[in-house]
Amino acid sequence: MSARAYIFLIFTFCGGFILQYFPLVDFMDWFVPEWVLMIFIFWQLQAPKLINFWWVWPLGMLLDVQHGIQLGSSVVGFAVVLYVLQLMYQRLKIFNVAQQAGVVFLLLCCYQLVVYWAMVATGDIHKPLSLWLPALVSAMVWPWLYLLLASSYQRLR
Questions:
Q1: Mean pLDDT of successive 10-residue segments in the chain (157 residues)?
Q2: Fewest CB within a 10 Å sphere: which of 15, 26, 35, 126?
Q3: Domains held by the chain: number
Q4: What single-letter DSSP state applies at residue 24?
Q5: Vertex 83, ends 96 and 64: CA angle to 5°?
Q6: What is residue 4's predicted lDDT score, i.e. its pLDDT?
Q7: Helix (H, G, I), strand (E, B) or coil at 18
Q8: Distances 114 to 32, 53, 67, 110 between C-alpha atoms, Å
Q9: Confidence at residue 101, expressed as pLDDT on a 0 to 100 scale
């Protein structure tokens, strides 16, 4: 990867953190897509040798601090998603965008479930019924995000 591609990678993660923190009305909090995790998934598909477990720790910790949840819960969620992606990224790359959105939905559900288990284990219980809404909204946003980032990344190469 060139230096411009590395700068673009850092820029996309910074943009993801900004979009993740974008303030909304209280009842809309569950409709915010998991921007950082979707960008993480995109980069895992585009540069699987570059995105590894060393990226999981800082991204997960920053996300935990940003959300104000228990430190390490997002790290474990990111690690689960990364492990599954490492196993199947070659198959996922040949899927069309709609099929990828289905897999992204399942990956985000796994992430949400791990974070929810951490909340339940520490006694900070939230509404379990609205647990799946960010994953559903993220799956609907995935095709547009993937096409936008892929076209921008191809121009940089």
A1: 85 92 73 90 89 86 86 90 91 91 94 87 71 88 94 86
A2: 26
A3: 1
A4: -
A5: 100
A6: 85
A7: helix
A8: 18, 17, 15, 6
A9: 94
Residue 70 sits at φ, ψ, to 5 deg, of -60, 130
CA proximity to 116, closest of 74, 78, 83, 85: 74
Instruction: Look at residues 55, 100, 117, 113 and name the one whose alpha carbon lies nearest to residue 82.
Output: 55
CB distance 145 to 38 below 8 Å: yes
Q: Tell the residue number behind the tokens 């997002």, with chain if given.
A: 74
| CB 131, CB 116: distance < 8 Å | yes
The DSSP annotation for 69-100 comes to: --TTHHHHHHHHHHHHHHHHHHHHHHS-HHHH
Contacts of 39 (CB under 8 A, 6+ apart): 12, 13, 15, 16, 145, 149
Structure tokens at 53: 């477990």
Report the candidate in 51, 56, 59 with the shortest Cα–Cα distance to residue 89.
51
- pTM for the structure as a whole: 0.90
Q: Alpha-carbon distance 151 to 4, whole Å? A: 15
Residues constituting the chain? 157
The token duo for 156 is 């940089």
